[in-house]
Amino acid sequence: MFSPLPFIVVSRSSEQLAQRLLADDYPVLFEGLHCCMLLDDPRFANKRKLVRTHNIEHDYYAALAKVENRFFRRRYFISESKKLAQFEQQLNKAQAVLAIARADAEQLAKRYRNVHHVPAFHPSEKLQAKPGKGDFVLYHGNLEVGENNQAALYLVNEVFNDLDIPLVIAGNKPSAELQEASARFKNISIRANIPHPEIDELIRDAQINVLPTFQATGIKLKLLAALFNGRHCIVNTPMVANTGLEKLCTICDSPAAMKNAVCEKFTSDFDPAVLSEREIVLQRDFSNAANAKKIVELI
Questions:
Q1: Whole-angstrom Cα distance, residue 234 to residue 239?
Q2: 168 sits in which H/E element
Q3: Does domain 137-285 have CATH number 3.40.50.620?
Q4: Closest Cα partner for 156 from 173, 180, 135?
Q5: How far apart are CA 60 and CA 138, in angstroms?
Q6: Residue 296 and residue 180: Cα distance in Å, rounded?
Q7: CB neighbour class for 287 (10 Å; exposed up to 12, middle 13-18, buried from 19)
Q8: Which of 89, 143, 188, 231 is the Cys-Cys partner for 270 at CB 3.0 to 4.6 Å?
Q9: Contacts for 281 with CB less than 8 Å, ≥ 6 apart
Q10: How far apart are CA 69 and CA 65, in angstroms?
Q11: 208 within 8 A of 262, measured Cβ to Cβ
Q12: How many Cβ atoms are within 10 Å of 51's Cβ, its own excluded?
């Protein structure tokens, strides 16, 4: 809290790592602004340096502060946001900045040189959506993160509160508030702290993956997981804005609209034509091999 540098940067500083990187002349790929402590180290002046940005980090932390109820944690996010805004200037020392989201690339290009849009890498190489129908709706995410807790509470209190459709909420460390809210409804259950393969199975088995967010930063890997592996996908605008994935989802920006979409899609067969459109967009814009090639060409 008292360092002028962001905690997420200082805590990843390592002289041992620096020595290993200095042992050869290879380029260095910094994975996230939080790993950029060595970016302006004079010992690295002659190395080619690329930074993979995950978000506009200071905006992300400011948004986390807005949804955090715990006083000291909220103060930490506010402090970290200010420090990250200052520290971001270190990107001037990189030969290339690789933004994960198109909107991030546009914003960063106004401040730094040589900014490129390289979409998110992900575990899915091909579409694996199941035929047939599921018998529940799924929301998944790290429930310890404030924005995911907020999204889950929105679904519980404003969307599924008067629907006779099962909602499964899956993720780590659900808050007491979320558990208490969910316990009021027979159609809502929480699968807490389950291993990732079980979440993957839930994504494939669900009739609908519903993924609202109130923080339009970066691109959400859970959205890619749902589109590669799930059936119907219902989101709100902040989840898909400027991602190129808008046409692959049903977008609902009010509880009433989301209720209606859930009721409609829950009884609808998953159209194979939708899968074909997903295949075209996802393999064109989110191919791991193609995006890795973009990075290789910049080295």
A1: 10
A2: strand 167-171
A3: no
A4: 180
A5: 25
A6: 49
A7: middle
A8: 231
A9: 244, 245, 247, 248
A10: 8
A11: yes
A12: 25
Nearest to 185 by CA among 169, 217, 161: 161
Residue by residue, DSSP assigns 117-132 as E-PPP-S-SS--PPSS
**Structural domain boundaries in the chain:** 7-118, 137-285
Q: What distance in Å separates the CA atoms of residue 238 and residue 213, rounded to the nearest whole number? A: 6
- Of 48, 33, 41, 216, nearest in space to 108 by CA: 33
**What is the chain's percent helix, strand, coil content, to nearest 5?**
50, 15, 40
Backbone angles phi, psi at 209, to 5 degrees: -100, 115
Residue with tokens 């404030």, as numbered in its chain? 146
pLDDT of residue 164: 94
Split the chain (299 residues) into runs of 10 and give each run's mean pLDDT: 85 93 94 93 94 92 87 92 95 94 91 91 84 93 91 97 96 95 96 94 97 80 92 94 90 96 93 85 87 90
User: CA 172 to CA 193: how far, in whole Å?
Assistant: 4
> For residues 263, 267, 272 and 274, what is the CA-based torsion angle, rounded to 10 degrees?
0
Let me know: does 21 contact 48? Beta carbons within 8 Å.
Answer: no
Q: What pLDDT sits at residue 103?
A: 87
Q: How far apart are CA 149 and CA 174, in angstroms?
A: 7
Helix (H, G, I), strand (E, B) or coil at 284: helix
State the residue for tokens 């002289």.
Answer: 15
3-state secondary structure of 43: helix
Measured CA to CA, the distance from residue 67 to residue 21 in angstroms comes to 38
Q: Which helix (H) or strand (E) holds 234?
A: strand 232-235
Distance of CA 113 to the CA centre of its chain: 25
pLDDT of residue 218: 62
Q: Please, how many CA atoms are within 13 Å of residue 128, restricted to the half-sphere of its CB?
A: 14
